[in-house]
Design brief:
GO molecular function, one term: magnesium ion binding
Cofactor: Mg(2+)
Number of strands: 18
Protein name: Lysine--tRNA ligase
Strand content: 25-35%
Catalytic activity: tRNA(Lys) + L-lysine + ATP = L-lysyl-tRNA(Lys) + AMP + diphosphate
CATH architecture of one domain: 2-Layer Sandwich
Number of helices: 18
Structural class: alpha+beta
Shape: elongated
CATH topology of one domain: BirA Bifunctional Protein, domain 2
Distance between the termini: 21 Å
Keywords: Aminoacyl-tRNA synthetase, ATP-binding, Cytoplasm, Ligase, Magnesium, Metal-binding, Nucleotide-binding, Protein biosynthesis
CATH class of one domain: Alpha Beta
Length: 511
C-alpha cells in the first residue's frame, strides 16, 4: 500500500494498467474524486482556467511588511498554481500554491466568501499536487502573510498520483527517471533548467557578437567522422539505406566554410554509443564553431569569452573545484603542452622525440595499461588521461598533441610530429577541444584512410573515409580554427553537478 513519502513504491513500480482493485489506496481515492466531479458535471481537466496575474507578479507588486496584518488591497485577481500545502480547519481553509518558476502564495477559502457547498467540495475534492485556479482579493492574513482571499475556486487539473514529500529526498533513480517530479519538489532542479537556458542564450549572444552565423546540419549521416567515437546505427526506410546518428558536427560545418560561410557554428545534439557515467551520456549537447583564417590561438580567445560570458550570465564566475579549491574563471588561464604535463606528472623526460619503447616503460612504471599497436603518441595520450587530466582543476589549455591522436588537426607550425590542437580542462574534465583545422585534402585523405584501416582492424571508434567531405575540401577550404564545447559540461561546471543533472532527461535503462 502506498503511503506519503513512499515515492519509489508508489510511483515507479505501479503502472496505469493495474486493475482498479489493485491500485494503491491514494490513487484509488483520487480516482474516486475525479469520478465524483464527472458525475456532478464538473470537468476535472477544464479547457480554460482564467488567470489575470502570475503569482510572481502579485508577490513582486505587494510588500506584506508595508501592508501589515489584515490588510485589503482592493485588487481582485485570478491565479493558478499547484497545491503544495493544504490545511482544512473548519470554516477556513489554507492552501499554498506554487507556479512553475517557483513563486508561491497562500490562498484562503472561508465559509463567508465561498459558501458552505463550495467549501465542502474543496475539502472533499482537493489534494496535494492538484492544479488549482483561485479568484479573489489580494490581502494579508492575520499573521501578515500575503494571500488571496478566494471568492471562487476550481480544479485546473486533478492529480491522480500522490506527490512525494518535499522533505524526504527522491532517490537518484527516481529523480532522473521522473524528472517532472524532481522539478516539482526541488528548487535546485528547476534552477538547473534556468541556468542551462541562460548559458545557451549567452553562448549565442557571444557568437553573434563575434560575427558567427548559426546553421543546422544533418543528424542522420552516412559516415562516422569528426571524432573518435562509437556511433549509433539506424536504417532509413525511404532510401533502404543504413544510416548513422552523428557523433560530431564538424564535417558539415567545414563544408559550410568551403561554401563561404566564414564564421559558422551549430548547437545541437550528438550521439555516441558508449558508456554512461558522471560525465558521459549517450546523447549530449555540443557547440561547434569554425572561423576561416582563424587558428587554435583565435579559438582559445573565443572559448574563454564563451565560458566567462556564460559564467557572468548566471552569476557564477567563481566556482568550487572537486578538490574544494576555488576556480576563478576570470583569472588568467594556464597553457601547457601535453608532453610537458606528462613529464611533470611522471618525472620522466618526455617530448615528441621520445622513442615509443621509452614511453611504454614510463607507462609500465606508473601502472598504466596499454594496447598493442599503440605508438608513442597514443601512449602519451593515455598517460595524460590516466595520470594528469583529473588533476587539472584550474582552467588549462593542454596543447600541441602528437599527430597520430588528432587526425583532423593541422601540422604544428614549428614542431614536426605535432599538430596544432588543444583541449581545455577545467575541474579535471575536458570542456572543449580546438584545432588549427587541416584543410589539405591530400593529407586529410591519407589520415582518414589510416583511420579506415584501424576500423577494418577492429577499432570501433575509428573514423570512416567520407568521400563527399574530401570532395568538398578539394574545392578549397580556407585556413581555419575550430572548436567544440560541451554545453552540458559547461552547465556541470557552473552548477557543480553531474551530467545526469545537467541534462533534463538523460538516457535511462528501460523500466
Amino acid at each position: 500500500m502506498c503511503r506519503w513519502g513512499r515515492l519509489d513504491s508508489c510511483l515507479v513500480t505501479e503502472t496505469p494498467e493495474l486493475p482498479e482493485d489493485d491500485l494503491p489506496e491514494q490513487m484509488r481515492v483520487r480516482r474516486e474524486k475525479r469520478q465524483r466531479m464527472l458525475d456532478a458535471g464538473v470537468d476535472p481537466y477544464p479547457l480554460l482556467v482564467e488567470r489575470t496575474h502570475t503569482i510572481r507578479e502579485i508577490v513582486e507588486a505587494h510588500d506584506p511588511e508595508q501592508l501589515g496584518p489584515d490588510a485589503h488591497t482592493g485588487l481582485t485577481v485570478s491565479i493558478t498554481g499547484r497545491v503544495i500545502f493544504l490545511r482544512n480547519t473548519g470554516k477556513l481553509c489554507f492552501v499554498r500554491l506554487r507556479e512553475g518558476d517557483g513563486s508561491e502564495i497562500q490562498a484562503m477559502l472561508s465559509l463567508a466568501e465561498v459558501g458552505e457547498e463550495s467549501l465542502a467540495d474543496f475539502k472533499a475534492l482537493v489534494d496535494l499536487g492538484d492544479h488549482l485556479g483561485v479568484t479573489g482579493e489580494v490581502i494579508t492574513s492575520r499573521r501578515g502573510e500575503l494571500s488571496v482571499m478566494a471568492s471562487q475556486w476550481r480544479i485546473a487539473a486533478k492529480t491522480l498520483r500522490p506527490m512525494p514529500v518535499e522533505h524526504k529526498p527522491l532517490s537518484d533513480e527516481a529523480r532522473t527517471r521522473m524528472r517532472y517530479l524532481d522539478l516539482v519538489v526541488r528548487e535546485e532542479a528547476r534552477q538547473n533548467v534556468r541556468v542551462k537556458a541562460a548559458v545557451l542564450k549567452s553562448l549565442r549572444a557571444t557568437l553573434d557578437r563575434h560575427g558567427y552565423i548559426e546553421v543546422e546540419t544533418p543528424v542522420l549521416q552516412h559516415t562516422n567522422g569528426g571524432a573518435a567515437a562509437r556511433p549509433f546505427h539506424t536504417h532509413l526506410n525511404a532510401f533502404d539505406e543504413p544510416q548513422l546518428l552523428r557523433i560530431a558536427l564538424e564535417l558539415h560545418l567545414k563544408r559550410s566554410l568551403v561554401g563561404g560561410i566564414d564564421k559558422v557554428y551549430e548547437i545541437g545534439k550528438t550521439f555516441r554509443n558508449e558508456g554512461v557515467d558522471n560525465t558521459h551520456n549517450p546523447e549530449f549537447m555540443m557547440l561547434e564553431a569554425y572561423e576561416a583564417y582563424g587558428s587554435y590561438d583565435t579559438m582559445a580567445e573565443l572559448v574563454q569569452a564563451l565560458v566567462v560570458d556564460a559564467a557572468r550570465a548566471v552569476g557564477k564566475t567563481v566556482v568550487t573545484g572537486r578538490d574544494g579549491t576555488s576556480i576563478d574563471l576570470e583569472a588568467p588561464w594556464r597553457r601547457a603542452t601535453i608532453h610537458e604535463l606528462v613529464a611533470e606528472a611522471t618525472g620522466a623526460a618526455i617530448d615528441v622525440h621520445t622513442p615509443e619503447e621509452q614511453v611504454r616503460e614510463v607507462a609500465r612504471d606508473h601502472g598504466v595499461s596499454l594496447q598493442d599497436g599503440w605508438g608513442a603518441g597514443e601512449v602519451v595520450l593515455e598517460l595524460f588521461e590516466k595520470l594528469v587530466e583529473h588533476t587539472l582543476i584550474q582552467p588549462t589549455f593542454v596543447c600541441d598533441y602528437p599527430e597520430a591522436v588528432r587526425p583532423l588537426a593541422k601540422k604544428h607550425r614549428t614542431t614536426p610530429g605535432l599538430v596544432e590542437a588543444w583541449d581545455l580542462i577545467i575541474n579535471g574534465v575536458e570542456l572543449a577541444p580546438a584545432y588549427s583545422e587541416l584543410n589539405d585534402p591530400v593529407i586529410q585523405r591519407e589520415r582518414l584512410e589510416e583511420q579506415a584501416r584501424l576500423a577494418a582492424a577492429g577499432d570501433p571508434e575509428a573514423m570512416d573515409v567520407d568521400e563527399d567531405f574530401l570532395r568538398a575540401l578539394e574545392f578549397g577550404m580556407p585556413p581555419a580554427g575550430g572548436i567544440g564545447l560541451g554545453v552540458d559540461r559547461l552547465v556541470m561546471l557552473l552548477q557543480g553537478i553531474g551530467i545526469r543533472e545537467a541534462i533534463l532527461f538523460p538516457v535511462q535503462r528501460r523500466e
